[in-house]
Amino acid sequence: MNSKINLLAIVFLLGMASTCAQEWHKDFKEAQQIAKDGHKPIILVFQGSDWCAPCIKLDREVWSTEEFKSYAKDHYVMLQVDFPRKKQNALPKEQAEANAKLAEKYNKNGIFPFVVVLDEQGKVKGETSYKKMNPKEYMQLLDSFTE
């Protein structure tokens, strides 16, 4: 009986964890289709996950918070474009090429982190970077680009 209760508890906790997990898309076309279907803006994030200190701070202070993840799930399509430098974090060649193409179009100055808010068609609605803000303030900033 105890093992059944433990199993149910584990299943419940895993389910809860997955509902709060940040869903980062890596493919622009897929993110764009989801945005169109859900009538949501795309939050396109250019980052250097293993070398860019402000990128890591933005992730820790905003993207990874439960407050942001909960809000983003219903309001945004999150698209991550990563440029890691460490060999062990290297992306597959096709992903690296896709990221480079997105950078050519949306991040010509090579700013990291760089956050671009896009509409369903991929039109730029606003741009920002790391700011010393709490998650609520950062969400208000992102939302202000789509109003």
Describe the model.
The protein is α/β, with parallel strands linked by helices and 147 residues long. Helices cover 51% and strands 16% of the residues. The chain contains six helices and five strands; from the N terminus they run αβαβααβαββα. The protein has a five-stranded mixed beta sheet with strand order 1-3-2-4-5, with helices on both faces. The radius of gyration is 17 Å and the shape is globular.
CA distance, first residue to last residue: 54 Å
Helix/strand-derived category reads alpha/beta
- Fraction of residues in H or I helices: 40-55%
Order of helices and strands: HEHEHHEHEEH
Low-confidence segments, ≥5 residues, pLDDT <50?
4-20
Number of strands: 5
The residue-averaged pLDDT reads 90
Instruction: Give the strand line-up of the largest sheet.
Output: 1-3-2-4-5
Strand content: 15-25%
Number of helices: 6
Q: Please give the radius of gyration in angstroms.
A: 17 Å
3D shape: globular
Question: Which features characterize this protein?
Answer:
single chain, 147 residues, alpha/beta, five-stranded mixed β-sheet, globular
